[in-house]
Amino acid sequence: MVLQAVSEWGPEDAMYKFGLQALMHFLDRLHEWPSFCDRLLRCPGIHGTEAYDKVEEILRGEMGVDTNGTAQNGLVLTNGAVDDFLEAEPSVSPFTCLHVDPPAHPELYEEPDEDIQEKVQFVLNNVSVRNFENKLQDLRNALERQHHQWFAAVLVEQRGKQQPNHQQLYLNLLDSYDDKALWALVLRETYLNVFRMLNAESTMNSSSERGHLKNLGGWLGSLTLARNRPIKYKNISFKDLLTEGYDSQRLLVVIPFTCKVLLQAAQSTVFKPPNPWIMEIIRLLVELYHTAELKLNLKFEIEVLCKDLDLDLKTIEPSDAIQGPRPIAEEELLGQVLPNGMEGFADLSLMGLNRVRGPNERFSPATITAALPDLGSLLHYPPASNGSHHQLKQIFLTAAQQAIHEIIAPVVERSVTIAAISTAQLVDKDFATEPNVDRYRESAHTVVKSLSGSLALVTCKEPLRMSITNNIRIMAGNLAQQEGRNMLPEGNIIMFVNDNLDTVCSLVEQAAENQSMAEIDTQIEEALERRRRHQATRPNEQFISPNLSGWALLVPPPYRQAPGGLNGEQLAIYEDFGRQSRGIPNHANTVSQDSGRQMPDVLQDHFPSLSSLPTPAEAPAMPRPGPQQQPRLPSAMSMQTTSTQPHMNGFVELHNIADRVQELLAELQRAAHEASEEHIEELAPSAPTREICDQLIHIIEASGQKDNLALGAAQRVTAVVYSEGKRPLEIEVLASVLHFLCTISVATARQVLIWLANIEDDRVFNILVTVSFLKMGLMDIHRVDVTVSKAIQQRRNIALEFMLSLTDDVLGNDQVAVLRVDFARTFEALAQWLADEPGVELGRQIMSRLQPSAPFDALPSPPSSEKHDQLEYIFEEWYRLQRPETSEKSYAAFIHQLHERQIINNQEDSAMFFRVCIDASITAFDIEEQMPFGQLNRAYACVDALAKLITSLVLYQGELDGAVKGGRVAYLDSILSLVVLVLCQHHQMRLGRFNHKVFFRLFSAILLEFHAAKSASNEQQMRITPVFAKAMLATQPKFFPGFAISWLALVSHRLFMPALLKMPDQSGWDVYAQVIEALLAYAGELSKSPDMSMAARSFYAAALRVILMLGHDFPEFLAENHFRFINSIPVHCMQLRNVVLSAKPKSVMELPDPFTEGLKVDRLEAVRKSPVIRGDAEAPLRQAGMKDAVNALLRSVEHDDEHISQILEAVCHPQRTETGYDFVPIGVDTVLLHALVLHIGASAVAAAGSKGVTFSASSPHAKLLERLTMELRPEARYHFLAAITFQLRYPSSHTHYFSCAILHLFGHSTDDQQTQEVQQQIMRVMLDRIMVNRPHAWGLVVTLLELLKNPDLHMWDLPWMKAMPEIERMLRAHFQHTEYSSRGLM
Asked: CA–CA separation, 608 vs 605, rounded Å?
């Protein structure tokens, strides 16, 4: 409001004066809102005022700017202009890998005067190749050294960023100027602009801004790489930039910029490939290309980069910077153990808890505390042993009052504001259909009261504790100086604070609840007024808020919002919300039991080091997971026992507890060592080891310093667990204790995980410790694999001993902790070692144990020995093998074992195996989808693994020893047939719960895997693609409606459609034409219903887009197959038919403009060429048994009535049932009519031969068309004429012939009733095609124009035209449109 007043009103207006006065009242707080100051600085109305000077001073302080315009952080403000640089604070964190060098000698530069600026701008506007030398000299004369900073900014921001086509010209100008200092300034200004745009949120939201960033990328590359100059790591680390962009979902900005920069390396002799620096970045881009699910435009950027650098994208090995293990950071490890939600408020200064507040703020302490009860009567005071009870009581009371006075205003303001805004939005959404004003208000009051009170409570507790303690110490110190002795021991202070903290907090909570009522009433007043107006004006109508989302009425119960307001169950949530207990004890009765207990050893201790005193912690607000949720050593009973040692006022010496913890750890270790059991599972509930562990856990959890105690205990455990001589039970117990310590202390978990993740010495090879930590989830199994594989590559025997023990203890037992594939890199390294040194005995033993000679039924598996479980185990192994670092050799070895052991040796085994894999994939997807924060990549992980398995099985088919011999194409066909069978079973059994996403992902992933497979040749891929087409025909929507949307996405897939249509000799056209016929038939069937569902509309629109795409990219395919496609489209789908019929081969370069004056169609060279018609167009005639009759009629002008009757009989009594819109039956065979018309036209064109197409009204073909037109009944005649217009397409012999036929059938003006009916039907057929949206076929437009403009036809004077004025108006409007529009009806 203040900003609006000073920016939109003049100094003479009262509103401006109000805004300026309001601004003056909070000048001392302006530094808290730098973005607001930035906007104020842009307001000319405050220039020359005290507020302007204050705002400018604040902004300079924020940026750390001195008088020369140099920022402390290294950024330069052009000529010291703050408002040219500052922007609003970004909502996303800036990239950490971008750094700009500090300016060199900023004091030398200044902004030139207007005359010099105009001269320089004139040079830049008019420079060209022809006048380059003259303009360069003009620039030298106009530009002085002190103006270089300004010139660099202009050159980068106004030229390099916005004029990419002239970048080279400006670079040549800069190069010829030959000033290294100016070059450095331009480079630095480029960095500044690039960094600003990369970090700006507007770049993510604006395509034009992203275009400017790409221009700057090319400009930066031209300044550096193209001239063999490096981009220093300290300025831009491209690998870190791409990694941060991936993590923060800003690849849309980062990838195009990076590609544009690297693109300039093609002009370099140093940085072009195979330069290691640029290849590392490209490998990371390739990894993102394959794994990051990029949009097509981002993938295209990477493809263009590789093409321009003469690199083959398929041969570049991706890096593992994204998918592989990254360096362990504390934040990542913290995220693994930190629960969802806030643990506390780390920053208690929000809304200014620690600042001095002005006297005119909305929430003043005096106003708030006036409504609170007297604090003195609520406090409980500790006993005084020195006779100064009254003075001490006054100190305690004053300290509490001062603490409340300092804290209450900001806490209440913050809590009430946040709670009111949240409540208003929440209630407005949930009560969008609630007309009752009182219910709306009561629910809002209930929620805001609870929210504001809870927020105030958690915000104020620790500040109040510190403030009360400090106030007491200060006042007690002053009193001690006056009395000459210390009258208040530290124990009394702690006792008072602990006894009364909840009481003081309750007052703040009560104040927040009281203030929130007025605030929420203000927030919801507009909503209440809207409901009052509705009740007054429309009491009988249902109330629906304009803010209601359209989906709110469509979601399933219990979340659906019904008209009339919330139901009983939904309203109960609000009613119960206000009754929730926050777990705060009754303040009136909360008195420390220590108040009446004399403890001279505590109360008389003066505690010389006050800063080291720990603050007792309170119990957690939420209960921690019990033993049934987190498996650990302690029993459930021990967690419910209470401590037998009383806490002294909530405070116990930390070192005493720490000593006790260390003693219990020693006892636990001794008890585990002496126990007769070997494993933790064998311990009885009353075993001494469990009892000691229970005590240890309880002491740590109940203490006020559990983080310090847990960390100390963890250090002791990690130091002891790796010592020699430990029994398995000791190690398992210690690992269990360490796991529990990590669950109760985030700080401990952070340190433990960091330490364990960075162990790279021989301690990793302690088999007992490593296995125990792996079971507890404390170590990453992949990091262990990497460490062991490195040791084997170094030929270390200790690694072999470790793996031998691992195969005995873990991989070979019934309780599978890890799988063999988890150590894929290790086994690969071991195989290489044995290949080099076959005599390594330990290595041979390991490999022999991994390759049992037992049959399939005896393979290692989970406890169940059924074949189903065996197959699940195998697929689990394959799934665990899918890691970025897994080599192709590991995949080949796994497939080799499958073939060697004949696990899927026959059709029955294969069917069962793939059914198990698909079921496991669907189960994994369903589980992840039902999770509150499920991740899409994780949900599809099993499906992608299955696709990789199918691809590998096919590619290695017949190549490996032991593989089942057979053709790859036939093998893939059998696999996809099994997948289709499983899909059919799921579709029938699950019905509405059919999961089409999994099968779509499976098919698409198989396509991607085959496309990316390096071992598959182009010939093999071309043979594989028709197999997919066969699977698509088997899964068409006619058979599986629940798979329709996914099926449509698959048949239009970028790796399927082009591959099939680009096959040599058009060998894939026929099968894909069958796919398109299925698509058109199903889309047309959906469109017949008058009440199309939203899903049906979406499918039809998508099908239309696919046909449009085919018409654009493969027009020959549509044009040559138009006969088949038109027969598949229902008669009412005019636009879909027009799209097919508008396709023209690319050989027809440009269509003549049908609106050209004097256009002679018969003189076009194209009308002498016949179009290509694919498919058997005569098949319908043969099936109807009328081809011989038609041919006989075409040989003679005199028609045999018997043949005519045969044709009429076949047409009017169709053998198949066909329906139109609203499923109205069609009484003729439209396909037979279409074939008949096409046969007549093709015969006429063939009869003309080389003479050219000349329509002759006396020819047998024209006579037959005329005879059928007159004798067919009206319905059949309409479809017959429509079939003729189907051939009015691009310029060809067929188009010319049938255009003349239409004009001939239209005839001349006559009073014959039948002739007029024919004319009307011709015009109706033409209008049905023209009145829908574009495109329209060229031949159709030409023919219609001829009908409208030919004076011999007397169109406008026909009787039926005069009888239907609306048709006449419509046609005249189109006729006028053709005269004034260059596009007309096309």
From this structure: 9
